[in-house]
Specification:
Elements: E1 10-13, E2 22-27, H1 37-52, E3 57-62, H2 67-78, E4 82-88, H3 97-104, E5 107-112, H4 114-118, E6 131-134, H5 141-148, E7 160-165, H6 169-177, E8 183-188, H7 196-203, E9 212-214, H8 227-240, H9 249-261, E10 270-275
Parallel strand pairs: 2-10, 3-4, 3-6, 4-5, 7-8, 7-10, 8-9
Antiparallel strand pairs: 1-2
Helix pairs in contact: 1-2, 1-5, 2-3, 5-6, 6-7, 8-9
The structure holds pyridoxal-5'-phosphate (PLP).
Length: 292
């Protein structure tokens, strides 16, 4: 398994010069082909904590297509820790690509009913003192602290930092890391997830500023997509050679293009878009849907 933070680049995107808007994309997807870029950052502090407390196994929650699950499995393998994933629903006959990969990295999968999952019930066999629990999606203060370090790789010259938002942990980290004159804009990939504002606020209690979450670009909900989104992702790739995924970064790039078109950003703005990875999610699309 190869991990390299040296591979992160900041790619200028020359699509909105007419509007006098400069855009660059920080390519966390280049850290690893399978494991989402932002997940490495979010996991960092949890792994340090587990090590300090002498824990032997990381336990976490996730769905069938969870980038977080694969990232935890891989990070544990690299750090010599055992890992267990508590997965929503019954074990399917055919495991998703994501879960196969998690097992290949040595993760034990425990399937629990949707009801138990919603209550975040930990199976008895995993309730041991030597286990360390990480929330679904890495949500929490340590996750946000870890994510704040993304901006160490991003340059400082921007007016707005834009990212895709699931649990809001990465966004919370970015809010804490930007300068007072910089804004953080989050694009929610879930439908009507209006708890997000509160969830982000809970992780940014000490920051003197808030971000802005936009809820209009979910394309039907989490992991849902439309022909317009797929068309856009192919077009964006043709113009920039930057691949995106249909769950997170495709929606982010679409949203930003649309917001620029609608003059959401003042002329002269310099946008930094976080390419948070997630490209493995595209494996669940029919072959040929995307041109990359
Ligand atoms: C998990 C993930 C996100 C969302 O991060 P949160 O901290 O949960 O908001 C965004 N992009 C990609 C590619 C992800 O895998």
């Amino acid at each position: 398994m190869h991990l390299s933070f040296d591979h992160i680049t900041i790619d200028p995107v020359n699509l909105f010069a007419q509007k006098n808007i400069a855009v660059s994309v920080v390519r966390l997807d280049k850290i690893h082909t399978v494991i989402s870029g932002n997940k490495w950052f979010k996991l960092q502090r949890y792994l340090e904590d587990a090590d300090k407390l002498n824990k032997k196994k990381i336990v976490t929650f996730g769905g069938t297509y969870s980038n977080h699950i694969v990232a935890v499995a891989a990070a544990c393998k690299m750090n010599g820790l055992a890992s267990a994933g508590i997965i929503r629903g019954e074990r399917p006959k055919l495991l998703s690509h994501t879960l196969v990969q998690a097992e290949e990295y040595g993760m034990q999968l425990h399937f629990i009913s949707r009801e138990d999952y919603n209550k975040k019930i930990i199976p008895y066999s995993l309730q041991q003192d030597e286990n360390y629990l990480i929330n679904e999606g890495g949500y929490g203060e340590k996750g946000a602290f870890g994510a704040a370090a993304i901006l160490n790789y991003s340059g400082k010259d921007f007016t707005h930092c834009c990212c895709a938002v699931g649990t809001g942990t990465m966004m919370a980290g970015l809010i804490q890391a930007v300068s007072p004159y910089q804004k953080v804009i989050g694009i929610s990939v879930l439908k009507n997830n209006f708890e997000l504002e509160e969830n982000v606020r809970a992780l940014t209690k000490n920051a003197r500023k808030e971000g802005q979450i936009i809820h209009d670009y979910h394309f039907g909900g989490y992991a849902k997509h439309t022909p317009a989104l797929i068309h856009f992702m192919n077009d964006f790739y043709r113009q920039t050679v930057i691949p995106s995924d249909f769950v997170y970064t495709g929606k982010l790039f679409y949203a930003v293009s649309d917001l620029v078109k609608n003059n959401f950003f003042p002329a002269g703005s310099r946008l930094l878009l976080i390419h948070s990875g997630g490209l493995q999610g595209n494996d669940s699309l029919k072959k040929g849907t995307l041109i990359y």
